[in-house]
Write the structure tokens for this entry.
Amino acid sequence: MGHTEGVAAAIFPTLEKLVAHVSSVFVGKPQVVRLALTALLADGHLLLEDVPGVGKTLLARSLARSLGCRFRRIQFTPDLLPSDLIGVTVYREQSGEFVFQPGPLFTEILLADEINRATPRTQSALLEAMNERQVTVDGITHPLGPPFLVIATQNPYEFEGTFPLPESQLDRFLLRVRIGYPDRTAERLILEQHRAGEPGQDLQPVLNASQVSEFQAVTRSVRVDPALADYILDIVEATRQHRDIVLGASTRAALALYRAAQAWAILQQRDYVTPDDVQHLAVSVLAHRLILRGGVHAPASTAETIIQQLLRAIPVPA
């Protein structure tokens, strides 16, 4: 365990520098920055669900620049096809060969903007990529990353011309996060930053893609006491027994909460998970995976309230 502690401690300063680096551009929301990094360190994906204009694209772009990773943004629309994401195989007349032309999915950080505006067929094209870190075209498998982080956005208040994400795809997102409006002090600073143009253009990398993979490996070594693993399972089991929940959290959800807690712990400069880590992340990890009575028409806030009630009712391990 001493070796693990030493390795984890060695990356603490770099992670703090990374948080500060992104927060210098994405102002006033350091906790959102930490949640985005939690998804990255846990090798998961992030769903940002919020109104337009609160900085979702800026967060993704600033994170990519700070990590020294390739970044692509795709605007999802109803006429977007799976091949527009993945790429196509074309015939080269000069060589007489078929050559695969990779699409924008072949990057390290992908911003899928307004993901719920694309058809289910196009949404499903992301499933293999998000889950397997690979895509298959004409029987040939093409790996993605590492790292490979999908940051998807959707507006929870606009439904015309949208296609709700199916449960199978929602389950692929490690976290669902709402950014919210900044406070007045932060908003004034944002106005001043934008006076000189788009902020973040001069951001220099704090890490590179290879180091991100190393940090993900260190995160997986963060200690989770068996009592805390049981605590996570207690929470998941409680969602399956709740009278207002038709479909509770899956085993994948339990694993997501476990891995997210490891990542959150290391961002708090610890090499072990505490009950507070689990409680802090439970809503972001679990609420979007639940199906309530009322189905897609049930408000998301109801699922979040249920998770908070369960956390108050379930005994916390000492």
User: Anything to note?
Assistant: The longest strand covers residues 87-92. The two ends are 21 Å apart (CA to CA).
